[in-house]
Write the C-alpha cells for this entry.
Amino acid sequence: MIELVDYIRLLSRDGRLSTADQIIAVAGLELEIEDINAAYQTLIEDEQYADIVIIEAKDDFYFYSKRYIVKSYAVQWIGVNNGDLLDTIANEIRRYGALGELVAANNFTHPPYNLEKAELDELIGKFEDVEGCEDICIQTANDGSKQFFSTHFLTTTYATVLGNIDPFEYSA
Amino acid sequence: MSSKFGGWAGYILRVNLTTSKISKETTEKYHDYIGGMGIGYKVLWDNHVDGIKATDEENRLVISAGPLSGSGAICSARTTITSRNPVIRGHLITDGHFGGHFSPELKFAGYDAIIIEGKSPTPVWLKILDDKVTIEPADSLWGLGIFDTFAAISKMMGQQAQVAAIGPAGENLVAQSTFQTQGGHSAGGHGSVLGSKKFKGIGIIGTGRVEIAESTTNEQLRALDDHILGIIGANNQGVVPHDPQSWAEFNAGISRWRGGPGVTWGAADEPVMLEETPWDDHQKVGMRTSMAEMYFGREEANKIFKRPGGCHSCPIRCFCELKNPKMKTEYNLPTEYITNTCMGFLDPWYSMGKPGNGEKKTDIMTIGGYYMDNLAIWSAYGQLSHIMREFTKRSFWEVLLPAEEFAAINWEQYANLDAHFMQDYYTRIGLAKSYNGSNYFGRFLGTGLHNFINDEGELYNIQDVLDDVESPRMAGLTFALESDAEENLLGKTYSVFLDEGVHVFNRSMVGGLHHASEAAGQVGALLATVFNRDPQCHSHINLINCGLPYAKIAEVAESMWGENAFDPVKHYKAMNVAKAKFAKWCLVKNVLHDSLTVCNWMFPLLVSPDVNKNYLGDSSIESQMFSLVTGIETSEQELDDKAERVLQLHRALSVLQMKEPDQRNNHDALCEWVYDMDPDKIFGEEGTIKMDRADIQIGLDLFYAEMGWDNATGVPTRATLEKFNLGFAADKLEGLGLLPA
C-alpha cells in the first residue's frame, strides 16, 4: 500500500481520485491487495501517511490525499464519476443552502464537473423533471449570472436578494 | 538599541517650518498610545488651538509609524497621517493612511514620527539621511506632478530613498488632496495642509534597523510567522477562493482570493498562468489575491495584469501592477505602467457612471488613475466620484456652472465613455483656481461638499460660495428623475442627505459611506458615527466578507459577541447588545491597527482558511507580535485597552475641537436616505439595508454604554476617561463645560 502513496498524492494535486487497481495498473506495480480496507488502516497508522483518505463509491474504494483535496470535493468527484451528476449537483446546492448561501452556476464549469456552458444550460432544464430535485431552483441575476438554490433552505424572494448583491453598489 | 524596548525607533522629529528649527524628542512619552495614530492624536491634543482651520499656520500635521513597522512583522508597513482636515465640517481631526515602504524607512532612519508645524515662506522639502535632517529648497519641485516629484527626489538622494509628497492639488490648496508615497499609496485629506505650509515632501534614507527585544529569539519570531501564514487568507481576509478549487470546501464570489486556475498575469515579461493556490502552500500566498480581476474582469485583467504589488513585509500583495500600452500610444502619457488598488481605480470608474467590463472601462480606470495620482487628488472615499456621477445623471452641471464653462467641458467624451475625459476632469480638480479658464466645476469638486450645503443638505449656488458671497443663494435644484418617484422624492428640493446615490452617510460630518449599513447592518452604521471622516474600518469586513457561508460567520460572531451579532445580508433584525459589542470591537481593533501600524485590510484574523481549525483564526496575533517585538509582554486585552485609550482620546478631541457637548445629535447623526430608502419596504424586511430611526437610537444607547459614553450626549464620562488615564482630557473638557455632569 505504501507504494501507492506518492501516486495518490500526485493525482490528488491534479484534483483526481483513484482506486488502488488503477494506480497499480498505471504504475506497473507488482502488487496485490487482498483487503483494501485493512491495508489502508495499516497505512495510516504511520503518521507520515495520515493524509491519505479512503472513500467508498458504488463499485470500488477510491483514495485521495487531504493535503490537496477536501472531502466535499472528493464526494463530488465520486458522484460525477459515478454518473450521478444531477444528484451530486443537487446535494452540493443543498450543502450551501443549509448554510444560507446560493451556488453560482459557474461553479459547475470547474472541476470535478468541467461542464461546458451548453452542457450547463441543458442540465438546468433537467432538474424540473427529476424526482427528488423539486427543491432545486435556478435564477438569473441582474448581471446575467445564474445561481442555484434549494427551497428547503432559502425562499425564492431572499434568493433573489442574495443573487443581486453588487459588491460595488455601496462600498468597494 | 536606542531604548530599553524593541520596536520603537526612539525619537520623534519636530520640524518647525516657520523657524526652520528641527528638534528631536523621545518617543517614550507616547508609548501608552502605542504609536501611529496614537502619537498623532496625542500631539494634536497637546497642541490644540481653538477654532483654527486646517490650512492655518498653527495647525500641525503628524506623520507616524507604529512599533511594529520595519520590524518585519507581517503586514506592518502602514503610515498614519494625522491633522485637521479641510474636507470635514469644522476642519476636525482625521487620520489618513498609506502603505508602501515609507514608515519602515522612517524607522530605519531612527524616527517613529515627524511633526510638521509652522509655515515656510518658500517651498521646501525635508531630507532625512539617518540623523542628518535638513530642510531643502523645493522651488524646482513645486508644480511637479507626483511621479516627477518622486523621480526628482530619488535622483537627488539615490534610488533607495523612500519619498512621500504632495502633488499639484495640495499645492493649489485643493482640500480633496493627498499625501502619497511611491507605488500608488496615498493618504487622503491632508495634501492642502502641507501645501499651505509650502511643504512639498520628504525623502528618507535610513541605514539602521528596527531592534527586536533582546529577550526574543529568532525561533519565536519564525514560529509566529508560521502561525500567521497558517491562518492568513487573501485581501480582506478572504479565506476561501473566489472560484472552486479542489482543496476548498467552499468558494464565494465575495472573496478576494482571486488567484487560481484561469487567472493569468498576462502582462508579465513571461506570462504567469496560475494554478490552484492551496491555503497551506506558503509559497503561493502572494498569488492568492491577484486582485486585478475584481476591478477589470478576467478577460481584461489577464491582458493587463503584470504582477501583484504592495507593502514592506506584506505577503498578500493587494496592489495591481498593470501595463496598458494605450496609456502611451493613445493617451500620450509618459508611461504605460500604473500601480494602484481600490479607489485609485474605482474613483474614475464611478465618476464615469460605472460602465461594464471591457477596454473602455480599463482605459478609464488606468488613465483616470494616472491623472488622479499624478495630481494627488483625494476622492474622499468616492464622494468625489459619486457627486460627479449623480450630478451628471441629474443634469445639474448645466444649472450650477456658467454657460460658457459648461460648454467648454467635453460632455460628448463623457457620454461616449472616452477616457480622454479623465485628463481635463482631474486637471480641473487638481489645479483649481490655477486652471486655465473658468473652473467652478473643478473647484467645487475639490473643495469638500460641506462648504456647499445648508443644514438640510440642500445646495447653495456654488458660484456664490466659491466667490465668497456672504449670503449665497440656493442652487434651486430639485429631484426630477423618474427613479426619484420610486423614492417619493420627485419634485422635492434636492438634498445630498436624501440622495442615496451621493453616498453621504454621516449627516453631521458629511462623511462618505464606507462599509456602513450595507455591511452588518447597525454594526456598520454605528461605525460611521464615530470618526470625523469615513471610518476606514475593515475589522468587520475582514470577517463578513471572508467568503465563508453565512452560517459559519454567524457562528463565529455569536461566539465573540453574543446571539444575533451578525444578521443575514440585507435581512436585518433589531438592534441588540451583541451588535453594540461587535461595533466597539471593530473600532478598537481598527485603532489598534492604525497605531501599531499594521494593515486593517487584513487584520484582525478572526477566521482562517484552515478547515482543520473549523476556520477559526486568532484575534490575539497583534498582541503576540507586539510582545515579541517590543519585549513588553502584553495580552490581547491589555493591548486593546491601549487602543481604546487612543479611541477615547479621539472622541475627547472631537468634542474639544467642535466645542460641542452634544455629540449624539451633532456628530453621530445619519442621513435621511439611510432611513427613507426603499419606501416600499420597512426596516427588517429582506432585500433592504434601510435602517430605522428608533432602532438606531437604541443602537447609540447600547453602543455608548459599551464605550462608557454619556447616554444623552455621547461624550465620554470622567470615569471612562480616567479609566484610560485620560484624566487630563476630562479636566480640560470639564473646564470648558463640555463634560457630562
